[in-house]
Amino acid sequence: MLKTIDRYILKKFIGTFVFSIALITCIVVIFDISEKIDNFIHASMHEIIFDHYLNFIPFITNKLAPLFTFISVIFFTSKMAARYETVAILSSGVKYSRFLRPYVIGASLIALSSLYLSHFVIPSANRQKQAFEDKYINNHYQTEEVNIHRQLDKETKLYMESYTNLDKRGNRFTLEKIKDFKQDYFLSAEWIQWDSVKQVWIAHNFYERIPHKIAGKGTAAENYKEEIKFGNEKEVKIDFTPTDMGRIESKVEIMTYPELKKFIAKEREKVSSGIERFEVENYTRTASPFATYILTIMGVCISSRKVRGGIGMHLAIGLLLAASYVLFLQVSSIFAVNNMLPPLVAVWIPNILYGGIAFYLYKSAQK
Q: Where are the domains of the chain?
């Protein structure tokens, strides 16, 4: 049951967090409008507000939530320490672990909200936001990827010399299937085009080779007969669409937790490369909300003591720790994307390390 002191601290915690995150979100939105004002000329006010900013605000708010939880805790706890409120609470016989309870409750409210937003709400909102951005902001986006290799499944490989996303066209296309260490199918085409009506690729000026096994007592090579075809157009039905050629960032951001897990499992079956970035995103969506607890405890332990320099000193120390945490998280994520660390380890290393720092500060604060 919450006591008066719990409600007092919790009210300060949530109130300061909401105010600070709302303030920084307004600043970010103002800068975003000034940067994109030329692109907004052709969009309606309804699209700008409901398609873009109502989906952009939850994204940026959730992104900054752990950091501003930390700043909020330091800010109002330092003010409590400056007014000797923390001294009065702890001197009355309240254990430090009991003093932390309302902070943990507040952190739990923020962390659980962030967890739900990260895994389900924001990916769905990003679909609408990205549709708006692709229409009015990224309308000149061109993929720069060349010499494209894709593993469609354990036996099938695809190659394109280049790909143009605007007209969904791939040049110098090759499709090959290897079964039992032998070529089971081969198709090459001068270019392929996506048919949005039939939802298939159309291969133009193609060459197709299909080996057929025949009965006989000859050598292994003599037991196969090749069927060779040439033609102008051919429908190619494969587990590969233009969305698979989208920007990796776009594909990562629009998938909910079940979709992302399913996608990663599917790509593993294909033995695809580059799935580390998707795994990093999946683990980060859980690790980032969990960091709220760590940063909250660190913030309380740093700012609950009255020191010379007051809130300024507390904020300086807090911002230094928060900045180092964010930097460490970015560096470890890069290691994971480049196969230098397992994604799960890379994402959770900062939490483990700073969890140790939080524990040390907690033990020191008890003294």
A: 4-137+275-366, 146-245
